[in-house]
């Protein structure tokens, strides 16, 4: 999977940027995504996170990760799940699945609050956002969707080697 990584803050250590790329590729393999899949991850500060959260979620505060799922125009692409689409055609279609914005300020706060490493927090946020852009959700809280998403998220992090 191709991942465009941008650090708007110029404060994210190179190791975290590399880890983000590796864990997202690991998660993509776990979900069985095509190698031609593409996405973007941008590291931002709380001010930018606040701005994006207001713009996309109508929520007037910063947040830890914003996931923007890309959905092609349904009039341009209409496929029934039962259709047998040749692999060559699938590879030619727009492979972009979405983008994540991760707040470095929230990552640092939450790593301290939860008592785990900054590496685990960045990975948790990346995988969490990645699952969202791949159709997973955790609402309503306490429901089966939440259990499925958080279970898969923990499975990916543990298999990758980032335990609590």
TrEMBL record:
Keywords: Cytoplasm, Endonuclease, Hydrolase, Metal-binding, Nuclease, Ribosome biogenesis, rRNA processing, Zinc. It is found in: Cytoplasm. GO terms for biological process: rRNA processing. Its EC number is 3.1.-.-. Its cofactor is Zn(2+). Pfam families: YbeY. Zn(2+) binds at residues 128, 132, 138. InterPro entries: MetalPrtase_cat_dom_sf_prd, YbeY, YbeY_CS. GO terms for molecular function: metalloendopeptidase activity; RNA endonuclease activity; zinc ion binding. SUPFAM superfamilies: Metalloproteases ('zincins'), catalytic domain (SSF55486). Binds 1 zinc ion. It comes from the Bacteria. Transmembrane segments: none annotated. One of its GO terms (cellular component) is cytoplasm. Belongs to the endoribonuclease YbeY family. HAMAP family: Endoribonucl_YbeY. Single strand-specific metallo-endoribonuclease involved in late-stage 70S ribosome quality control and in maturation of the 3' terminus of the 16S rRNA. This is Endoribonuclease YbeY. It comes from Lactococcus taiwanensis. The lineage of its organism: Bacteria, Bacillati, Bacillota, Bacilli, Lactobacillales.
